[in-house]
Amino acid sequence: MIPDLPPGAVAVVFHSVRHPAAEGYAEMAEAMDVLAAQQPGFLGIRSVRDEQTGQGISVSYWLDDDSARSWKAVAEHLEAQRRGREEWYAEYDVIVAEVIRAYSRP
Amino acid sequence: MIPDLPPGAVAVVFHSVRHPAAEGYAEMAEAMDVLAAQQPGFLGIRSVRDEQTGQGISVSYWLDDDSARSWKAVAEHLEAQRRGREEWYAEYDVIVAEVIRAYSRP
Lengths: 106, 106
Prior knowledge:
The structure is a homodimer.
Chain A: E1 10-18, H1 25-37, E2 42-49, E3 55-62, H2 65-72, H3 75-88, E4 89-105
Antiparallel strand pairs in A: 1-3, 1-4, 2-3
């Protein structure tokens, strides 16, 4: 289930198309998940990738926009972003949005 | 790439875990993608599912929250939602959020 999302919570939607041979990607992705969870304001993350098409969507949730921006600027994450641009992703985009409402089942 | 997202645009993040045997799901998912694209205020949709785990994330973009709400209430979509709850999804959640900023590459 999704975490409880307080008012002002921010969702960062990361959509990417990964190259078929993306050496070092899996290790980095796992390391970044661990590191993200240690950041102030981290509320949760969901990632899904279709290995057939290379398409992935990852949505991370943050207490506020400052938390989301701070994570983007963490040194190890900057290095991951650089490798993503240069080595792993054919394309990507990022959308940052403020949560209005949420519901779930069950 | 993502569509141009005007100020006030709304992202609807749908995360689901689908049952392995989900009869009729693929046809309905395709029909709903076509129908969504015909709705007023529709800006785009992205969907990724990992067939190994059943996990999926779908993000649709709307001109405003009224457009997103209207789509939720379209009759054929209500029927798809009902079958999703009763037949296809082990769990799901929906988060509606207002776009703050977006960037992409290339």
